[in-house]
Design goal:
With about 290 residues, the protein is mainly alpha-helical. Helices cover about 80% and strands about 0% of the residues. The chain has 12 helices and no strands.
């Protein structure tokens, strides 16, 4: 037995069993057909609308066909672009005011409980008054252009405030407490912990505000403007040029979608790590399913 053990000790080490090869990482293949349903649905609805218009033949001023609307978009593209420029300028200026005021107000409310009790209820109450009821008063008190900017800011700042406050309060409290115990000052904690943690929620509010801002601009143009897609829509409706009204609505929808996409792209630039984490989590879930 001892000789056997000595021989085994003098024998060269046996080669270790090869480790199982790691499964190759599955790359996420681009799926060009992922957005196909979203692109197909509008074309299906337009085709149904066009077919119904050809069969039922409603009056042009009552319900124009998609072909008539497309013709109006092309034939009056100069006038539509002229009014769209005014709407875009009003929307962007009012949205900038809303974002600036909303972020500052959210910081104040999240910083001070006294400010929250004094200001936050009035922020909520400001959204219970219909915009159409406030718009004529703003036009009386202010010039048309400041009144339109005030309307856009009034409509768009609420989601910025709510999302900003919720984001600041949802930031990681353990991380904030840890850096405080390490000697960080409150200002440093706000700049490097709370505000970055609030950015995902804030961008959600910004996307909503971008869409609401278009609505505020249209309401202001309806009430007291001579230029803009809202004023143009009001004029064409009164003249029973319904195809042009639909063309103006199409332009407004395009502006809203473009602003929403711009805010989403800005979020991807500001928070690239968040989207990478979501993408990796999605890939892992798909690998588990397979």
């Amino acid at each position: 037995m001892r000789a056997t053990r000595d021989a085994a000790a003098r024998a060269p080490d046996a080669p270790a069993a090869p480790a199982p090869a790691a499964a190759p990482a599955r790359r996420r293949r681009p799926r060009p057909g992922r957005w196909l349903p979203a692109l197909v649905l509008p074309f299906v609805l337009i085709a149904v609308w066009q077919g119904a218009a050809m069969v039922l033949r409603p009056r042009e001023w009552l319900l124009p066909s998609p072909a008539a609307i497309a013709g109006a978009l092309w034939d009056d593209r100069g006038r539509l672009w002229f009014h769209a420029q005014a709407t875009i300028a009003t929307t962007l200026a009012g949205l900038a005011i809303a974002v600036g005021a909303g972020v500052l107000l959210a910081l104040l409310i999240a910083w001070s409980r006294s400010a929250e009790r004094a200001v936050y209820p009035w922020v909520v109450a400001s959204q219970t008054v219909p915009v159409l009821a406030v718009a004529p008063l703003l036009v009386v008190w202010l010039d048309p252009e400041p009144a339109m900017l005030a309307l856009v800011a009034l409509v768009a700042f609420f989601p910025v405030v709510v999302a900003g406050v919720d984001g600041l309060r949802a930031a990681d409290p353990l991380l904030a407490r840890t850096v405080r115990t390490m000697g960080a000052r409150p200002g440093w904690v706000w700049r490097h912990v709370l505000v970055p943690g609030a950015l995902p929620g804030l961008f959600t509010g910004l996307r909503m505000a971008a869409v609401f801002a278009v609505t505020g601009a249209v309401v202001g143009e309806y009430v007291g403007a001579e230029r803009g897609l809202g004023a143009f829509s009001k004029l064409t409706t009164g003249q029973f040029q319904t195809a042009l009204t639909f063309a103006a609505v199409a332009w407004l929808a395009l502006i809203g979608v473009a602003l929403f996409a711009a805010v989403s792209a800005l979020e991807r630039l500001a928070l690239p790590h968040r989207h990478r984490a979501v993408r990796r989590r999605t890939v892992r879930e798909r690998m588990r399913r397979t």
